[in-house]
């Protein structure tokens, strides 16, 4: 359904001891930049006076948006004219953390710009019990790893379970050719992204969804 006219909504996202990564899953709003009609303003801080990170409208979502601190303030407004379906988005800690939703996006920090050296990021994705986690990768995918099974340099590793001791899912990933789809056997997925001190690249963007025998869960949980 379309959102109502003349709406004013605000959200405050907090992630103690971390930055925040915000990703759009879909976008359908009136207007186009600079978004004088309906808009979603994303601010780098805890209130409406914080610096603007992005002003969003239209149908073409931006890439990942990152805060510089532990808070992100969102303000959505609509006028009395044309309305759309709005937006759907996910957020997580900027480099790791628990992600408890049934559909979302995770990226390397600063994607699609180059990630930083010396990273060791771990995410635990948890979807509805009884469902599996299905993962697909987007382009560009570029991780500067080398050697057999990405034994040197940077790598991305997915595991079939909740933590770093769970069975490896698909081996270490690096280079520019990710697998098409990976799927866990239960509702937990562990992701680890490690970079060394030398050459960086654009990194990765993955989409995860809860699946169960051909069905996709529509449930959403708070993080």
Automatic annotation (TrEMBL):
<dbReference type="InterPro" id="IPR000859">
    <property type="entry name" value="CUB_dom"/>
</dbReference>
<protein>
    <submittedName>
        <fullName>CUBN</fullName>
    </submittedName>
</protein>
<dbReference type="Pfam" id="PF00431">
    <property type="entry name" value="CUB"/>
</dbReference>
<keyword id="KW-1015">Disulfide bond</keyword>
<keyword id="KW-0677">Repeat</keyword>
<feature type="domain" description="CUB">
    <location>
        <begin position="95"/>
        <end position="211"/>
    </location>
</feature>
<keyword id="KW-0732">Signal</keyword>
<keyword id="KW-0325">Glycoprotein</keyword>
<feature type="domain" description="CUB">
    <location>
        <begin position="1"/>
        <end position="94"/>
    </location>
</feature>
<dbReference type="InterPro" id="IPR035914">
    <property type="entry name" value="Sperma_CUB_dom_sf"/>
</dbReference>
């Amino acid at each position: 359904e379309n959102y109502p006219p003349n709406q004013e909504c605000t959200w405050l996202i907090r992630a103690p001891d971390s930055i925040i990564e915000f990703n759009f899953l879909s976008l359908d709003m009136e207007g186009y930049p600079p978004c004088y009609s309906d808009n979603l303003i994303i601010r780098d801080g805890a209130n409406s006076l914080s610096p603007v990170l992005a002003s969003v409208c239209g149908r073409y979502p931006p890439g990942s948006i990152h805060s510089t601190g532990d808070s992100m303030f969102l303000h959505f407004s609509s006028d009395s004219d044309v309305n759309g379906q709005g937006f759907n988005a996910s957020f997580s800690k900027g480099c790791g953390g628990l992600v408890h939703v049934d559909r979302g996006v995770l990226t390397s920090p600063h994607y699609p710009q180059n990630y930083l050296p010396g990273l060791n990021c771990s995410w635990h994705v948890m979807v509805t019990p009884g469902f599996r986690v299905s993962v697909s990768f987007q382009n560009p995918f570029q991780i500067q790893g080398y050697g057999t099974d990405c034994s040197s340099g940077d790598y991305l590793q997915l595991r079939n379970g909740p933590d770093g001791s769970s069975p490896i899912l698909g081996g270490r990933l690096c280079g520019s050719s990710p697998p098409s789809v990976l799927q866990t056997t239960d509702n937990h997925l562990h992701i680890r992204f490690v970079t060394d001190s030398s050459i960086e690249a654009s990194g990765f963007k993955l989409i995860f969804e809860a699946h169960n025998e051909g069905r996709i869960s529509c449930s959403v949980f708070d993080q």
